[in-house]
Design brief:
Blueprint (H helix, E strand, L loop, with lengths): L15 E5 L7 E3 L11 E4 L6 E2 L7 E4 L5 E4 L4 E3 L2 E8 L4 E9 L6 E4 H8 L1 E5 L3 E6 L5 E8 L2 E3 L18 E2 H7 L5 H10 L4 E2 L7 H7 L18 E8 L10 E7 L5 E6 L5 H16 L5 E4 L3 H4 L2 H6 L3 E4 L9 H4 L1
Parallel strand pairs: 3-10, 4-9, 15-16, 17-20, 20-21
Antiparallel strand pairs: 1-2, 1-6, 5-8, 6-7, 8-9, 11-12, 12-13, 13-14, 17-18, 18-19
């Protein structure tokens, strides 16, 4: 039976828990120390393979546990599993479900298995130094934001509906909330506005805004290259660079040729960009004689110096691949 561990993301005592079965199947768990709060919060745990609650009242649907499994701590003491069931965790905008929750009254802590939670609710979890984000897997929208308490990631507790609604409060607004209210400005602009207008706020240095990062991105990320070569000279990448100053020998440009298979770089200084055609013919003669095989494909941008090579490449049976306009990422080997 595979190991079941609890407590990878929060502080726990030195004793370890084991799920003990009559057939000597064991599963490991880390036992947290008791909480002084009357209502134990739900803690997110990336090391737990099952949800666990200490209070049967947390389960909306439950049934007695009829198997012979027990939870055994490191000193040999066993902790019985009394019930299994499910529970819903409502939030302001949605509701999340926990299935196959084990009720172990002597655990004292309520644990959410991140792996099971993500599978059941079709979400992903991003962990940050002082908070976590729950995101929809399909759209990437943030469905829930929570914080940390005493070094653990704690599920946010919904405010009671019977609590009075206050028009004004002495609680200071965090910089994260001001960032959202002011239309997701850059940090320098946000700090200037807060200071200039003397807005009360509580410092929250580490916050991550998904909307701000998305809007600052000018391009979608490029996927990893799928090009595969099995020998030298199958694909040659090339790029021309312009120097801000002219060298002592009068060179203002240089061209490089990068072999995709061996990643070796050939470097040639140029006085004019049009010299690329002459240099490439020299390069071709050297490498084809050295490797005893021909260049198959040549990859470059659509610069005039490479367009002038098209006839020569065609006559020598070399396919010429070019990047789309304004996408140097496609020629990343030589650009880097």
């Amino acid at each position: 039976m595979s190991l079941i561990s609890f407590g990878a993301n929060f502080r726990f005592s030195q004793c370890q828990l084991f799920l003990w079965h009559d057939t000597i199947r064991t599963s490991q768990a880390n036992f947290t120390s008791p909480s002084s709060s009357n209502i134990a919060p739900w803690l997110l745990d990336s090391g737990a393979s099952y949800h666990v609650t200490a209070d049967l009242n947390n389960l909306s649907l439950h049934a007695p546990y009829t198997d012979h499994d027990d939870v055994m701590i490191g000193d040999g003491t066993t902790l019985p599993i009394t019930h299994t069931g499910s529970v819903s965790l409502p939030t302001l905008n949605s509701s999340f479900h926990l299935q196959d929750v084990l009720c172990v009254p002597t655990m004292q802590k309520n644990l959410i298995s991140i792996a099971m939670f993500c599978q059941t609710n079709n979400v992903s979890v991003e962990l940050f130094p002082t908070c976590f984000h729950m995101k929809d897997l399909r759209t990437g929208d943030i469905l829930l934001q929570g914080g940390t308490k005493d070094g653990v990631y704690e599920w946010p507790v919904a405010s009671s509906s019977s609590s009075p609604i206050l028009a004004f409060s002495t609680v200071k607004t965090t910089t994260s909330i001001w960032h959202q209210r002011l239309g997701h400005p850059a940090s320098s602009i946000l700090n200037h506005i807060l200071s200039f207008y003397h807005l009360n706020f509580s410092s929250h240095k580490h916050f991550c805004c998904n909307a701000y990062l998305s809007n600052k991105s000018h391009k979608l990320p490029f996927s990893t290259s799928t090009l595969i070569t099995s020998r030298p000279l199958q694909i040659i990448f090339s790029d021309v660079w312009t120097s801000p100053i002219v060298s002592h020998d009068g060179y203002k440009y240089y061209v490089i040729f990068v072999d995709h298979f061996i990643k070796y770089i050939w470097f040639y200084p140029l006085k004019q960009k049009s010299d690329v055609q002459i240099v490439f013919k020299r390069y071709k003669a050297i490498v084809e004689k050295y490797f005893q095989q021909n260049i198959v494909s040549f990859y470059s941008d659509n610069g005039g110096e490479y367009i002038a090579l098209k006839t020569f490449l065609f006559e020598n049976g070399i396919s010429h691949l070019t990047t789309p306009p304004h996408t140097p990422e496609h020629n990343g080997f030589s650009e880097r």
